[in-house]
Every structure is written in C-alpha cells, then in structure tokens.
Amino acid sequence: MRQTVDALCVTLEMLFRLCRSGALSPPGGQRRSLSVFPKRKMATGVLQRIRGGFTPAKSRALSAGNLSLWVRGFSASNSRNREDSWFRSLFVRKVDPRKDAHSTLLTKNEESNLYKIQFHNVKPECLDDYNKLCEDVLPSIHADKYYPCELVGTWNTWYGEQDQAVHLWRYRGGYPALTEVMNKLRQNKEFTAYRKERGKMLLSRRNQLLLEFSFWNEPMPREGPNIYELRSYQLRPGTMIEWGNYWARAIRYRQRNREAVGGFFSQIGDLYMVHHLWAYKDLLSREATRNAVWQQEGWHEVVYYTVPLIQHMDSRIMIPTKASPLQ
Amino acid sequence: MLMFFFALLFASFISFLCRRFSESSDKGWFRSLFVHKVDARKDAHSNLLSKKETSNLYKIQFHNVKPECLDEYNNLEAEVQRRLHQDQDFPCEVVGSWNIWYGEQDQAVHLWRYRGGYPALTDCLQKLRVNKEYLEFRKERAKMLISRQNQLLLEFSFWNEPLPRKGPNLYELRTYNLKPGTMLEWGNRWARAIKHRQENNEAVGGFFSQIGDLYVVHHLWAYESLQSREETRNSAWQKEGWDVNVYYTGKTSPATIML
C-alpha cells in the first residue's frame, strides 16, 4: 500500500509540475529563469511529509510553502549557462519582471551622485613618471571649486593586473555636473598639456560611469595606511536587482572592521558590472576579516544565492597613491 | 504491486532517456532535471580546499616581455631570482621560472612560494621596497616589459607540493576559468582524480586563485617530452573513473599553455 502511494507521488509530482508551468506565466512581460543551488534536503523532506501523512499529494503540495520547495528542489545546477525553456523554467526560482530603470530602483534617490572609474594601463617603465604627473594635476582639479567634481581615490594595482592605475571620481549633481566639468576642462590649457603628456605613458585606458547602491556606505576619505580591494563582478544580464536585494541584506555582515568603502553598478561602459570597494589594514587582516564573516549566520546564504548571478569576477589589490583622499 | 512496478519502470526509462539526451545536446531542457545537485558552501575556499598544516602562499607572475628583449630579460631575472631565493633574509622561494614555448609566446611565468602566508609576503615586500639593488632591477626590467599580471594562489590540499626536479623536463600549465560557484565541486572531483595522474610523476602542483582573476585554477604538469606527454595523457583514459572526472569537470574552459 505504501509503495503504491510512493509511486503515485512520483507520478503526481511530474503531472503537477506540468500543470504549474501553464498556470504561472506572468501576463505579458518576460519570464526570466534563474538557476539556483537547489536544496535537496528540503525537497526530500517535503516528499516524506506527504508520504507520511497519506493525504492527497496534490492538495498538500499546493500550499504556498511547499510550492517553492518543490520548484527549488528540482532546479538546475548553477554551473551551466542555459537558455530559457518552458520546461526548465518550472524548476528554477521565478524572478519578477523589472518595472523601472536600475538607476531609479537601486541608487540613492535623495542625492544624485555620479561616479566615474578609470582604469589606466601604464607602460611599465613609465609608471613612476605617470604617478608623479597625476600627483600634480589630479588634486588641483579636486580642490578647485570651479569644477564640480571630486577625486574619491586614486590607486596603483598591486596584485591583479599590474602597472595599472585606477581613479575614482564623484560628480555631485549627476550628468549636468559631468558635462560642465568636461566643457570647462576642454578650455583648460594645462589640462590639455597633461593629457598629451599622459598619453605617451599609457598603453590603454578604459572607463565606466557608475552609480552607487543605495544600501552601501558613501565612500568618505580615510586615514591610512590601508590596502584596497576592488572586486569587480560581471553579472548575468537581468540579475542586477536580485544582486541588489541580496546585498542590501548582506552588507550589514561586512561592517565589522569598517571594511566597506563603496559599492557601485555600471551605467555606461561595460554593463551589468558591479564594483565593491573594500579597505583593509593589510592582507592578513583581509584574510581574517573575510574568514570571520563565514561564522555569521546568514552569510553562506548570501554567497549561495549571489554566486550563480555572476558570469565573471576578478579582484585587484590596490595601494593608494599619495594624492588619494582614500588612504 | 503491479502498478508500482510499472511506475518504477516508467520512471527509470524516462531518466535513462534523459541522460542520453543530456549527453548529446548541450543545452537541452531535460538536462536540467538530471544533473547532480550542488550543496551550499559553508566556509571560505581557503579553509575548505587548501592544506591546513602548512600555510604556503604562492604567487604566479605572467610577464609579457618585448620580443626583442627576451634574452636580456631572462638573464636579468635569473640573476635576481637566484639571489632572492638563496638569501635567508627574504622569506620567499622560487618554485619555478619558465618561458612559454607553445601558447602565448614571449611570456615569462614565475612561481614563488611564501612559507608563512601573508605575513611572509608582506615582510618580503617591505624589505624589497628599501633594497636599492632590487629597485634598480625593477627599473631595468620595466623597460623590457609590455605588461604584467599576477595572482596570489593557494595550493589544493590533495595535490603534491611542488618540489625541485631534475631536468630536462617540459612543463604544462593548464589554466581553468571556472564558473563562479564551482570551485568546491572542482576540488571534490579532482581530489579523486589526482590519483589517476601519478603514474609518471607528472603532477607538480595544483593551485586556485585568491587574489587577481578569481575562480582560476592552475594545474602544473611535468613531462619529459611532448611525445611522453601524449602517451601519459592518453593512458589516463584507460583508467577506471577518469572519464567520469572529465565528464563532470569538462564544462569549464581550459587554456593550455606549454612551457
């Protein structure tokens, strides 16, 4: 008798899932499916409960709590990048369609800070000269009230892609401030000369315009000496909101040693990129801080849910140059 | 009883069909049902995957040298590395230093070991910052380089520790960019697989990145010649269990560099 119920459960489960796919398509909009790590224990737990109760499997499974467990229990391994398909969509967590732009949903609405990050690949033999040049020019633009921009930090990479300089600027006032600065600098003869000099020392450069996440701290000047870690994540398109949701909860786990400096997402340049900037006293304390976070309740869940959203990630350890407000 | 039997038969038939489908097509929808599940991680990679007894930190450097300067660069580096390696004052050792033969050419790869982890690394760095000779060397070297990148690595607990070897050998560095989240799974599979690759003393070291490009794994192998490399690798397929390892790990993107 019990065995018959088991068989019934298996068959009903498959039938049920087939029905569910039809019932749950959101009207209009795009259904996005995401692979997540399934919780095997939960799925088997539900199955056992159903068996034990001898109640009709279908009505039991219809309860909301079990619904999500059933779905999650059979979702795909995250280690493969797949296209959407109706059947696959049965077994993954559902994501609601986005209703607004990232810039409205994720960033601080009270202020309108725009950030620009620059990555300059410097010719190895010119690195010292480049640093000296930047030391002269960049702080002067920062201090001059005529230009509505501020230098947040300027670093040389130490580990990661070497001989690279990273500059982070803030434009209080958003795009109008950015355009204003650009127009003014165009007229500035000294700046044009600086750019010419600098051009001889560079191999290549790229930049991105970023907005800050609303739940992250605003990067404020710091006393040194610190080392900084810039973790850059290339997210799968469409997953920015989910990333934001998890990190909005996760960021409080990472405030122990004041290591959180700033979190940004890209608007122009490489898209769906997220940068997290961390400050540590040295590499050992970085290791200790990061390991200690795993002891906190809930952190492993954050990792579990956010890692599948990432396509590629890298980390660079950077040392601030003398001109950097973030030391 | 009969109904149960038929249901079981049906289910097993379906799963057999699906496994066949999953093997043939890369992006089939059925496949998602029948892949193995991965459990949530509970701790940092550095605690779960690397050797606990020692705290060796490895640094790998990739230097893209200007083609015309390669010989000069090699001489310069050899001299400096010899001194740093022998000097007890600097807590670092050169594990190996290579030029690329097949792969990205005119690239030099250096692997360093810091016994004592991050404190040793910081110690070494601070001492070198004030060493005038070293600064001179860096200036000289910078003229010969196009670009450089490095990564800090930890070794996998189940791999051998790279020890000095007599030559002549050629080395293969296989670098894998894993999909984020799959490091543990990789480690689990290779912990079992590594025993299949010990026949000719070919396994030198296996590392995963901690700083620099993340979710990168390096496997370092040593062979006498390209021919013996071919033979060794082919014979691995004769062993029971090797194909399973490749099946489950093969969805990453390997890049073969030969040194």
Task: Throw out a few tags for this protein.
heterodimer; A: 327 residues; alpha+beta; Alpha-Beta Plaits; eight-stranded antiparallel beta barrel; 11 helices; 10 strands; 39% helix; elongated; B: 259 residues; eight-stranded antiparallel beta sheet; disordered C terminus
Could you write a compact summary of the structure shown?
Chain A: Belongs to the NipSnap family. The complex is a heterodimer of chains A (327) and B (259). Chain A is an alpha+beta fold and 327 residues long.
If you had to describe this structure to a student in words, what would you say it looks like?
Chain A: InterPro entries: Dimeric_a/b-barrel, NIPSNAP, NipSnap_domain. The complex is a heterodimer of chains A (327) and B (259). Chain A contains 11 helices and 10 strands. By secondary structure, chain A is of the alpha+beta class. Chain A has an 8-stranded antiparallel barrel, surrounded by 4 helices. In chain A, strands 1-2 form a two-stranded antiparallel sheet. Mean pLDDT of chain A is 77; it is low at 21-84. Chain B is α+β, with helices and mostly antiparallel strands. Chain B has 2 domains: 2-32; 45-258, Alpha-Beta Plaits (2-Layer Sandwich), CATH 3.30.70. An 8-stranded antiparallel sheet of chain B has the order 2-3-1-4-6-7-5-8. In chain B, strand 2 and strand 3 form a beta hairpin. In chain B, helix 3 (70-86) packs antiparallel against helix 5 and helix 6 (183-193) runs antiparallel to helix 8 (242-249). Chains A and B meet through helix 1, helix 10, helix 11 and strand 10 of A and helix 1, helix 4, helix 5, strand 4 and strand 6 of B.
